[in-house]
Task: structure prediction
Amino acid sequence: SAAPEQQDLRATSSGLVTVSSSRGTSQPDVDDTEDKMYAREIMTRHIMSIGPMATVKEAIQRLNRYGITSMPVVDDDDRLVGIVSEADLLRGEVLDGGPVHRHADGSWPEQVPRMVSDVMTAHVLSVTEAVDAVDIARVMLETGVKSVPVVRDNTVVGVVSRSDIIHALATSDERIRARAQELLGEADLHE
Result:
């Protein structure tokens, strides 16, 4: 049997944090995949992203319209530069001087539009397509993040959310579920 795949949590020169396989993006050996499910198998491929120069209001409207809790922030070349979440947007709108109360007519007070780049998280936890879903779940539990962009050469190709992992656990065979529970138990992570 092949040696276990090692995960590498590292910061890149752009400030992004990436979890990647020690084997890069090559296909794992068949013997090593028996109980594993990878990011490429469970990620959402049709993702909603936004540019850093979009307004906070645009980002809020997009999250609301698509029923998502965060989205990758990408530059003009679709390279990952950050992530913006509901919490980032709430902080930007409420805590950083945004409107808290509506006018009597129901409209919001006018203000200078803030940019996504002002409120986004620039140090993004991202993963490559070859990362084991159990390792993604562990990192999510340890860090509290709810979704993780999946990148190939720093270009976003998908997103893995907590609900993607729950769906994978609900639809995969018992061995994968047992392995995930075992590893999470070893990490002593409880909600």
About this structure: Residues 1-16, 20-31 have pLDDT under 50 and may be disordered. The beta strands are 7-11, 17-21, 70-74, 80-85, 125-128, 147-152, 155-161. The longest strand covers residues 155-161. Helices lie at 39-42, 56-66, 86-95, 116-119, 133-143, 162-171, 174-186.
